[in-house]
Amino acid sequence: MEIKVIGEGCEKCDKLYENTYLAVKEMGLETSIDKVEDLMDIVRLGVMTTPSVMVDGKFVISVRVPKVKEIIKLLNP
After folding, report:
1. N or C, which terminus of the chain has less Cβ within 10 Å?
2. Taking every pair of C-alpha atoms in the chain, what is the biggest distance, in angstroms?
3. Distance between CA 75 and CA 77 in Å, rounded?
4. How far apart are CA 13 and CA 37, in angstroms?
5. How many CB atoms sit inside 10 A of residue 54's CB?
6. Neighbours of 67 (CB within 10 A)
7. DSSP 56
8. pTM of the predicted model as reported, rounded to 2 decimal places
């Protein structure tokens, strides 16, 4: 599973990264979480709004910071 948390380092972006990290940890997943903060990289990914989360190349979260439990639901197959 490839997870990317996308945002330019604002408070919401940092909180989304933290919540995503906690969700992955709670689920016991062996995956890394990439934090994409460079504007050119964000544009290359086709992101128009931040913060966002991509899982395996698909957007699962955009413009909000869900709680850890909701992120767990989104990450479960």
Report:
1. C
2. 32
3. 6
4. 9
5. 20
6. 10
7. T
8. 0.92
- Helices then strands, counting H and E runs in the chain, come out as 3, 4
Contact 15, 45 (CB under 8 A): no
Amino acid identity at 70: E
pLDDT (tens digit per residue) in 43-69: 999 998 899 999 999 999 999 999 999
Per-residue pLDDT tens over the stretch 17-38: 999 999 999 999 999 999 999 9
Which residues participate in catalysis according to the annotation?
A: 10, 13
| Beta carbons of 67 and 19 less than 8 angstroms apart | yes
Q: Determine the residue type at 18.
A: E
